[in-house]
Amino acid sequence: MDNAVYTALTRQSGLMTEMRSVANNIANMSTTGYRREGVVFAEHIARLGAGDPSLSMATAEGHSVDLTPGAMAATGGSLDAAIEGEGFFMVEGQNGNELTRSGAFTVSPEGALVTVDGRRVLDASGAPILVPTDAGPVSIARDGTMAAAGQPIARLGVFAPVPEASLTRVGNSRFRADGGETAIEAPTIFQGFLEGSNVDPVLEITRMIEVQRAYEAGQNLLDAEDQRIRSAVQAMTR
């Protein structure tokens, strides 16, 4: 197998990874708090010999996360909350705390403030938030302070990854900050709103078409190279 085939196969593998990323974005266009993901490619260049052109291969090395805010939509839910600007809500995860922009909260039978999938929401100090079952309607101030019957209950924690941390997706709208996070002291939170996905469907469909065409071009190259090798073998064996 010569260099052209190796290069084409590496390219096809990267395009498949990018297509899966595009498909995941399209599937989550309506997911609350979802953040669009992209693929990070790395180029590897090797010198073949004196006077010969170099060999370049691109491989998919990881994923990037687009932190552009999504549009807010009014829900009227007293426990729905959306963050304006930077930051994430923090929730308990199976392997440590996780970050999310999805503020669709509810109260569990035990009185804990939880996400739609049952993960406990944490306050500014990193402790679970408990809502008294007989507290009545809950209000959420712009700084995240939760109160019922005029009495403060807790303050929603809003955190940001430290500058050197990387975000690893652990769910459709949840992330783990590899490197740690820091609390945002003066967040802006809107009660009765939810933040939608930041996926632009037109851009994603355009990207999908481009990836598909690039993959087809690579497949045509492989088919042509396969035919060339077959012809060469047949000519040598006559």
Mean pLDDT: 87
Number of DSSP E strands: 17
**Share of helix, binned:** 25-40%
Number of domains: 2
Strand order of the largest sheet: 13-14-6-5-12-15
Oligomer: single chain
Order of helices and strands: HEEEEEEEEEEEEEEEEEH
Q: Summarize the main sheet.
A: 6 strands, antiparallel
Shape: elongated
Name the structural class. Answer: alpha+beta
Number of helices: 2
Low-confidence stretches: none
Tell me what portion of residues adopts beta-strand conformation.
25-35%
Rg (CA only): 25 Å
> Distance between the terminal alpha carbons, to the nearest Å?
21 Å
Layout of helices and strands:
Layout (H helix, E strand, L loop, with lengths): L2 H25 L9 E10 L8 E11 L6 E3 L6 E4 L3 E6 L2 E5 L5 E2 L5 E2 L23 E3 L4 E4 L2 E5 L2 E4 L4 E4 L4 E5 L2 E3 L4 E4 L1 E3 L5 H36 L2
Helix pairs in contact: 1-2
Provide an overview of this structure:
The chain is an alpha+beta fold and 238 residues long. Helix content is 26%, strand content 33%. It has a six-stranded antiparallel β-sheet with strand order 13-14-6-5-12-15, with no helix packed on it. A three-stranded antiparallel β-sheet has the order 9-10-11, with no helix packed on it. The chain has a two-stranded antiparallel ribbon with strand order 1-2. A hairpin with an 8-residue loop joins strand 1 and strand 2. The two termini are 21 Å apart.
